[in-house]
Amino acid sequence: MRVCILGAGGLGSVIGGYLAKTGVDTTLIARPAHADAIARDGLRIEGVRGEHLIRDNLTAISNPAEATGEFDYLILATKAKDSDTALASADCLRERVRTACSIQNTIVKEQVLADWIGDPARVMGASTIEGGSLEAPGFVKNHVTVPTTAYFGELDGTISPRAQALADAFNKAGLGAKAVDCIQQVLWEKLAQICNASAWSVSTLAGNNDLTFVHGMALREGAEHYVAISLELLAVYTALGYSPQNFYAPLSRLKDVYECKTEEDAVQLILGFGERMKQQNYVGRTSMHEDVVRGKKTEVDYIVKPFVDKGRELGIPVPTVTAAYRIIKVLDHYLA
């Protein structure tokens, strides 16, 4: 198997590194400093799976034109807002890729890939909750994982050999994965989960750069705000015909909130979750919150806006989500 990861920053490097470690011929397309460091010294990964230095089966380049041969899979791992630029730079790979998929946080990514590759049949659905951050050139941290961290499936609701093959490769690499016949639902539920955490954390915590997720989750007002967002997202999600599955348990709490008999029960659930994180000395932020802290533009239009738009389309009020979207858009306007 040959895999090319376009946009190998933190997450892309984590996934590519683990695949390479178990024998998958992997090409990382990354920023020049990161690619040069990997080519010179190997890729260093630290985190939930220990420490690794990976050299074998791994090629790191900064220009897609330097990639050689054909690839079974191209995995798009850039920020959603950078998709067009990244894909345009990779036009030279279009005819050498059998299957393209994306692990970005957006519901439109498969259509973006289909437009680029020119054939929707060569695009497969993919989703992951795995966490990776680029700490320095050649060095990434793998700070988040769950038992099933990735899903693959065809957009027509079938499980194909190519979906199963990529899931098998991920499993062999220690990245728990499944091939499923409900990838569209996985994509919507993951977006709801990411939207919940992102809209909540930025609209709650962005005024103080010292605050992390646990600081708001363990306070009643923070838990109430979190639940208000959850209930609105669940209203849209269930109106699409889905019921929450917690695909990314134990990180996801949507199903738990959905099954609470009262809103107060849900608030108590989130307060308990926050208290457990506090006792475990959990320190972390969502990617969107981290972008705001670092002064970088966010992916609010890809993560939060789809629920604002879908709520309007379906006639479902989402006032808290809409307010959070407006707050983040104002912040976003002044970010680089």
From TrEMBL:
SUPFAM superfamilies in the record: 6-phosphogluconate dehydrogenase C-terminal domain-like, NAD(P)-binding Rossmann-fold domains
Residue ranges annotated for the Ketopantoate reductase C-terminal domain, each copy included: 183-330
Cross-referenced InterPro entries: 6-PGluconate_DH-like_C_sf, 6PGD_dom2, ApbA, KPA_reductase, KPR-Related, KPR_N, NAD(P)-bd_dom_sf
Molecular function, one GO term: 2-dehydropantoate 2-reductase activity
Catalytic reaction(s) noted: (R)-pantoate + NADP(+) = 2-dehydropantoate + NADPH + H(+)
EC number: 1.1.1.169
Residue ranges of every copy of the Ketopantoate reductase N-terminal domain listed in the record: 3-156
Alphabetically ordered keywords of this record: NADP, Oxidoreductase, Pantothenate biosynthesis
Record-level GO cellular component terms: cytoplasm
GO biological process: pantothenate biosynthetic process
Biological pathway: Cofactor biosynthesis; (R)-pantothenate biosynthesis; (R)-pantoate from 3-methyl-2-oxobutanoate: step 2/2
Similarity comment: Belongs to the ketopantoate reductase family.
Task of the protein: Catalyzes the NADPH-dependent reduction of ketopantoate into pantoic acid.
Name assigned to this protein: 2-dehydropantoate 2-reductase
Source species: Immundisolibacter cernigliae
Taxonomic placement: Bacteria, Pseudomonadati, Pseudomonadota, Gammaproteobacteria, Immundisolibacterales
